[in-house]
């Protein structure tokens, strides 16, 4: 019977060791680790926590329905509002406080429409100096429905 | 020791509670970071399609990405390259990308040969070389098909920057950890499209959900000539290019 005490001591030592290991493991491994794969699921929340800058054209259309209707009937129908007007999430959040700056068409339009041999042939492009002589594009073109005359009929 | 099967079962019925106890313990000290909203990760598998014939090299995507993701100047989560192939064979193309096309490209005169634009971004590889080399498991593939970085784990060792065959990773100078395209995970998990797709004026880029049977991507992939970058590296790239020239690397 005396010999059994040694075994009990040894078993107790092992038990303590196992408990220490389990507690340490619980403390070291981040919560939920391995739930979706070999990573910390909280990392997904970290990435997703970033605020958005581009509100998305559906948000714009909720208020600017008139512009959307005009846009949908023209050559720029496939353009999202923020492609030209820039990120407007802060404007969408508080329209009274943050007013978007109206883009300068002299600079904005050539970003896409300045002629270049690398651009696909189907894309409407002009050499802006010859085309307008420095006049702002919106002198003739309404940016939300830019085509007129022969172009509009196409 | 004489015990019938019936007696043994009776004496061990407490064992039946073990799974319940395990679930209870898991609830107590386990996962508390479950994504609390409507986004169902298992129902999505993200990629992107890029139509070369539609890209006009305006750089709107590069500017939108920088604005949305606060990308440090000089680094790019997405950028646009301009290729010029003077003659066949197309093994020596002239490629330029001034400032990642942040300000677009200067006009180019027609000198013969062919020229075109190639937008690039993280290919969200199914078998990512960058994930394989990370020594601390800081970068990983998610069930919805993205390659993301846990910046709280990243050591900034740059192995993945070297491993990425597409040059899509860079070091965030302020945090000294790696950064890359997240395919605007903060947007697409809210039902929006990515900043680059939102800003693209010609629809050259389209976000694709490969698990959504109604997504037009399936028709796009079926009906067009589709290529991926560096297919010989078997990375399982999920950025699908339509009519990509053979000169593109």
Strand content of chain A: under 5%
Q: Outline of chain A, from the CA principal axes?
A: rod-shaped
End-to-end separation of chain A in angstroms reads: 104 Å
Note the run of SSEs of chain B as H and E: HHEHEEEHEEHEEHHEHEE
Quote the beta fraction of chain B: 15-25%
Roughly how many Å is the radius of gyration of chain B?
24 Å
Task: Spell out the helices and strands of chain A N to C.
Answer: HHHHHHHHH
Give the proportion of residues in helices of chain A.
40-55%
> Which ranges of chain A are low-confidence, i.e. pLDDT below 50, for 5 or more consecutive residues?
none
Largest sheet of chain B: 4 strands, mixed
Q: Could you tell me how far the N terminus lies from the C terminus of chain B, measured between alpha carbons in angstroms?
A: 76 Å
Biggest sheet of chain A, open or closed, and with what strands and sense? none
- In quaternary terms, these chains amount to heterodimer
- Main interface by residue count: A-B, 45 and 58 residues
Structural class of chain B: alpha+beta
Quick tags:
heterodimer; A: 50% helix; B: 249 residues; alpha+beta; four-stranded mixed sheet; three-stranded antiparallel sheet; 11 strands; elongated
